[in-house]
Amino acid sequence: MRSLHAKRWLVLALMGVAGILSVGAALAATPATPAPAPASQQFVDGIAAVVNKQVITLQQVNTQAQEAQEQLRRQNIPLPDYSVLQKQVLQRMITEELQRQEAERLGIRVSDAQLQQAVLTIAQRNRLNVDQLRQEIEKSGVNWDTYLSNVRQEVRMDMLRQRTVDSTINISDAEIDSFLKSQGRQMNAAPAVAPPAAPVPAQQSGPQVLGLAQILVTVPEGSTAATVQELRQKAEGLLARVRGGADFAGVAASSSDGPRALEGGELGVRPVEGWPDLFVNATRDLQAGEISDIVQSGNGFHILKVLTRGQPAQGQPAANRPLDIRQQAPAQAQGPMMVTQTHARHILVKTTQVMSDDKARTRLEQLRQRLVNGESFEDLAKRYSEDVSAPQGGDLGWLTPGETVPAFEQAMNALQPSQISEPIKSQFGWHLIQVLERRTKNMEEEFKRMQARQMLFERRVEPAYEDWLSQLRGGAYIDNRLDPQSNRNQR
């Protein structure tokens, strides 16, 4: 799959104003009197953890723990003991620090122009202009600069995920064919019996959505059989608690190893086909409010709760996690779809600590001059491009609107056939783009395949992301002084 074809876009586009303010309030909320940490955790040097060579201080942990308390209160999630909350917050901070370091290593930056575009998109999706968005944010008590910093960090982390995870997920044509056949069989599988006494309500037609929350007990890579059994017993104990009446979100906040533990374990709402098969099968017979048995994956033991099942509410996006930057699958195609496609090729130079933005741009400016002087685009792409399309001379084939990331598509659309762009920056690096030709085509069948590709991508991206995080942690030096036991479980 062409690495350029991001299935997550650099826009915080699915956040409603309420979601924005909720996140913003969490950033600003700090209790007037900070809750004291237990005496045993007040270290003389104030160091809570060391991540490679970076220190996380106890003060930083306490600040974020207090913010987490306020967020949990607003969500009516039972508060764990403060010492437990500290540990959960610190684990999240360690993961964020590892990602920050990886983004730094890869030279991933968010320019002011990219930040402005993200903020503009948030405003537009909420039917506001930027000034109105700022007013709403500041009404919640959040400093605008703090909010922009948070958006910049979210965009940067999404760029990192696209570079390291999304681009590794390849969906073959054979897999798409199989998926479409299975969907066709399901649609044609209605039994030949008398119709039901009452008509099926109209809202039952169309794609079904599923909302899930999870409690995850992570099993570190290379764990012994005894360790796996110990962690399974831990998961069984947590399952017994939630089935015995304990609040699921509260148990997730205090005990889950999942990245959304402090949001009550909520994973969001998406079409059923977009969840991993493992999750779909485990919750197939469950109704809203019911809890699955323990589900084992390569990452550990999952306990799933069905939050919602059925049709999405009117106007509700199929995936609605706060700060989710995921591009949603388009609506079902209805009849002919005449679309203008572009046949293009490109040369990509990625940025790293060694290859800075300036160096990458300069290299492409030099390559562009060579192209203007008559050298072959195909030959230069094969020699210098760092994209998977390099062996094909940078040829990306026929591109449909929405198939590439916005920065690339905007630059490509501005070109005439045979024209070569100036160096263009995207989250993948710097590009030279040449448009070869354009055509208008009925995309009805391709649209269905694009939907299928997106669904299959959604199934794989979360497990792939968790695997990548696990590998990132496994290759790092982590000294967690609030929870020394976790250090033994890193590798």
Automatic annotation (TrEMBL):
GO molecular function, one term: peptide binding
GO CC terms in record: outer membrane-bounded periplasmic space
Gene3D superfamilies per UniProt: 3.10.50.40, Porin chaperone SurA, peptide-binding domain (1.10.4030.10)
InterPro entries for this protein: OMP_Chaperone_SurA (IPR050280), PPIase_dom_sf (IPR046357), PPIase_PpiC (IPR000297), PPIase_PpiC_CS (IPR023058), PPIase_SurA (IPR023034), SurA_N (IPR015391), Trigger_fact/SurA_dom_sf (IPR027304)
Domain spans labelled PpiC: 207-308, 339-437
GO terms (BP aspect): Gram-negative-bacterium-type cell outer membrane assembly; protein folding; protein stabilization
Reactions that this protein is recorded to catalyse: [protein]-peptidylproline (omega=180) = [protein]-peptidylproline (omega=0)
Catalytic activity, EC: 5.2.1.8
Keyword entries, A-Z: Chaperone, Isomerase, Periplasm, Repeat, Rotamase, Signal
Signal sequence extent: 1-28
Subcellular compartments: Periplasm
Pfam families recorded: Rotamase, Rotamase_3, SurA_N
Domain comment in the entry: The PPIase activity resides only in the second parvulin domain. The N-terminal region and the C-terminal tail are necessary and sufficient for the chaperone activity of SurA. The PPIase activity is dispensable for SurA to function as a chaperone. The N-terminal region and the C-terminal tail are also required for porin recognition.
Function: Chaperone involved in the correct folding and assembly of outer membrane proteins. Recognizes specific patterns of aromatic residues and the orientation of their side chains, which are found more frequently in integral outer membrane proteins. May act in both early periplasmic and late outer membrane-associated steps of protein maturation.
HAMAP family reported for this sequence: Chaperone_SurA
The protein's name: Chaperone SurA
Organism this protein belongs to: Pollutimonas thiosulfatoxidans
